[in-house]
Specification:
By secondary structure, the protein is an alpha/beta fold. Helices cover about 35% and strands about 25% of the residues. It is built from 10 helices and 10 strands. Helix 5 (about 110-120) crosses helix 6. The longest helix has 18 residues, at about 165-185.
Length: about 240
């Protein structure tokens, strides 16, 4: 059974069709990268998976269960999401990481918080530091730790490094890849950067105009010599090369 199964998903917004007849399976432990031109529906697809967008038609199942049969609070605990730019909450790093547990009437020990920080390569000495004083890359890793504190089974990443410099981008990528290797966490990662997709992905989904153009392995899609020419045209900013 796939971790995530999408069948014939369509989404409309303001009378316009944003996603058209999307069908997709994502395996347990997979890191699927979603690429495509601006406006192709990448972020909209992610937002459907934790019901930030309500679909027009189709079905979405997580571990064989319709996400529409789940309370939204349960769904969003199981399906974590990290956005392009996340804002730290007021308070310390530790208080930020424990925020979700507090909302649900629970608590995290300092040891648990330090373990989460280690998973995303945040130094332990930052534990009691005001979160507002973190760098951009540290703040993004804090957001990952905050999502992990809810113990999700699927993590959605909406261009999590798009606002970061190359060094911070590298830290975030390494943290997420180590996390996946250690925990087998399933991830869906929207990216606008083909080089990043080559570095992090196990499989690639190419969207254009709200439709699936192709899904395949990173090598088959994005290899500079033998990859899909339409996907590589996108890498060069040539949207015409994406036309079916």
């Amino acid at each position: 059974m796939p971790k995530l199964s999408i069948r014939n998903l369509s989404l409309k917004r303001g009378g316009a069709t944003v996603l058209r007849d999307i069908s997709l399976d994502v395996a347990e432990g997979e890191l699927l990268v979603v690429i495509g031109p601006s406006g192709s529906g990448k972020s909209s697809l992610l937002r459907c998976l934790n019901r930030l967008n309500e679909i027009e038609s189709g079905s979405i199942q997580l571990d064989g269960r319709s996400i529409y049969d789940m309370p939204v609070t349960e769904l969003r605990r199981q399906v974590g999401m990290m956005f392009q730019k996340t804002a730290a909450f007021e308070g310390s790093v530790a208080e930020n990481i424990a925020y979700g547990a507090r909302l649900r009437g629970g608590a995290l020990s300092r040891e648990s918080i330090l373990d989460l920080m280690a998973q995303v390569s945040l130094e332990g000495e930052l534990l009691d530091k005001p979160a507002a004083e973190l760098s951009g890359g540290q703040e993004q890793r804090l957001a990952i730790a905050r999502a992990l504190a809810l113990n999700p089974s699927l993590l959605l990443l909406d261009e999590p490094t798009s606002s970061l410099d190359p060094i911070a981008t590298n830290h975030v990528e390494e943290s997420l890849l180590r996390l996946r290797e250690r925990t087998n966490l399933t991830m869906i990662w929207v990216s606008h950067a083909i080089e990043q997709a080559r570095r992090v992905g196990s499989r690639v989904l190419l969207l254009d105009g709200g439709r699936v153009i192709r899904e395949d392995s990173v090598a088959a899609m994005l290899d500079p010599e033998t990859g899909d020419k339409r996907a590589l045209a996108f890498a060069e900013g040539d949207k015409e090369g994406l036309q079916p």
